[in-house]
Amino acid sequence: METSKDLFKSLDQAEKLFADGAIKKAQKIVRDVNNQIKKSGKIPNKLRHKFNAALAQSRYYDDVSSFAANPKRNELIDAIKNVVENPSDTPKKQANIIHELQTKWQLLDLSSRPAGREQWQTFNELTNKAWEPCKEFFDELKEKKIQNAVQRRILITKMNKYVEDNSVKWPEARSLINFINSIFNEWKEYAPVLDKDLKKLRDEYYDAKKPISKEIERQENIVIKAKESLISKVDLINDDDNDACIKKFNDLKQQWKLAGSAGRKNDNKLWDKFNKSADRFFNAKKEDVEKDLESLKLLTADLKNKTKNPSELRSEAALLINLNKTKEMQVFMKNVKTYQDNIAQEVSIAKVESYKNLYEILLDKKTSEDKSIPKSILKAIQTSENKLDKDKLTYSCIKLEVMADIESLKKDSKLRQTIQFEMLADKFNKGVNNKKILIEKLLVDFYSNLPAKDAGTDEKKLWSRISKALDNLSNDLP
Questions:
Q1: How confident is the model at residue 450 (pLDDT cuts 50, 70, 90)?
Q2: At what angle do helices 173-189 and 135-166 cross, to 10 degrees?
Q3: Burial class of residue 148, CB neighbours in 10 A (0-12, 13-18, 19+)
Q4: Which of 263, 282, 301 is where one domain is finished?
Q5: Are residues 310 and 347 in the same domain?
Q6: Omega prior to 192 cis, within 30 of 0
Q7: What does the buried/exposed string (b/e) look like for 177-213 if buried means 16 or more CB atoms within 10 Å of the residue's CB?
Q8: Are 88 and 49 in contact (CB under 8 A)?
Q9: The domain boundary residue, chosen from 230, 260, 282
């Protein structure tokens, strides 16, 4: 038998459960304490007062439960009254309607406080009247109610056997809850039963379920303590680096997920408290992100106005660590790349134009200061002493067309084929395959064999063909 001290603890636990909204669990504890008090006889006045307060609270919730369930019972009374006053055209149909209404009534008794005497008598009398037109089915339905009771006793036996097999080493709470729910779902299928069996079966059901519910509660209390401990650890996080605080919180969140269930109601409350404890980290993080977003807006303005080059923009964006992998940063870096590509394209176009002007330099015999052109090509233009060699000029032109993937003239098809074989052989023999080097060499050869005095219409046409090839080779110009 429990001592007064134990009973005080039980009532304290019931008070906490009432406060948390676990009404059914609290009422079970109050009933257990009541049984212990009846067995022990005299108890201290202080315990008596505490018990009376808990009992009053339990009865209050019973009244609330009845307040919610009684209107539904009145609806069932009205429904059975309607069956009496407006009987169905076939006895079988009427029997099924009565059967359904009885099932609903009995399920209300299972899920809330049992009906009051007056309500029950009214419903029972009307049900008996409703049965009169279908007496031929009464025996059949009575047998079905008897069989339902048999099946419910099998479920009670199944629960008792489960307790016997698992009480030494209980499964985890989730498995216990799933087992109870599966039993209850079957229990509802075997309804209704005879009125004389209803209360006894309900009491046996609760008695069989009690050890399982108690174990679920024990395991959930362990999880509650574990999760309360994790909340305390979150409260203690106080690193100067806010990101380090968030990392520690996320590590604790992983432990939280592994801790198990504290019961649906408890879990929701604890989870809210756990996250609320970490709000300070994420609020600080939010402020840092907002600051970096403002800085990114300024960089975006620099990008739009082209007041900074791509390298400067990338370097400053790298300092905005709170925006790593964000959509805003991805869009910005994409725009910087486009900006850099445009600059490269402009440089490339300008470089091609410089190369195209080589023929004008040849004709004018001017010294070019263009640093984008290799000195070797400019020197070939200024100091060419070779005689005009049209074959070499044509060779340079066609080879550049091959490299640029441009079709040559039909009359040059044989030479083009020869050049293609040479280039293929160079590739296999590991000859010079660097495009920049080849382009430079071909242009040096072209101007080394083209004295300015001999530059005529044919030579200008060849240079026009070369210029088109240089457009395609813009990314490979030396």
A1: confident
A2: 170
A3: buried
A4: 282
A5: yes
A6: yes
A7: bebbeebeeebeebbbbeeebbeebbebbeebbebbb
A8: no
A9: 282
Which domain covers residue 336, as residue numbers? Answer: 285-351
Distance of CA 25 to the CA centre of its chain: 34
Tally of domains in the chain = 3
Same-domain pairing of 318 and 268 = no
DSSP string, 81-137: HHHHHS--SSHHHHHHHHHHHHHHHHHHHHHSSPPPHHHHHHHHHHHHHHHGGGHHH
Q: Is 139 exposed, middle or buried (0-12, 13-18, 19+ CB in 10 A)?
A: exposed
Kindly state whether residue 392 falls inside one of the protein's structural domains. Answer: yes
Whether residues 246 and 292 share a domain: the answer is no
**Amino acid (one-letter) located at 218:** R
Spatial CA neighbour of 208 closest among 178, 183, 173, 172: 183
Encoded tokens for 29: 């504890």
Weakest mean pLDDT among 225-229, 326-330, 380-384, 468-472 = 380-384
Residues recorded for the chain:
478
Nearest to 104 by CA among 73, 148, 64: 73
* 3-class SS string, 248-308: HHHHHHHHHHHCCCCCHHHHHHHHHHHHHHCHHHHHHHHHHHHHHHHHHHHHHHHHHHCCC
Residue 106 placed within a domain: no
pLDDT value, residue 209: 92
Is 151 inside a domain boundary? no
238 is written with which tokens? 């106080």
pLDDT of 119-146, one tens digit each?
Answer: 788 888 888 888 777 766 666 778 888 9
Residue 220 has which token pair?
Answer: 């959930």
Tokens (6 digits) for 274: 């756990």
CA atoms within 13 A on the CB side of 308: 15
What the block records as the tokens of 126 is: 């009307």
- If you search the block for the tokens 């395991």, which residue do you land on? 219
- CA dihedral 53→59→64→66, nearest 10 degrees, is 180
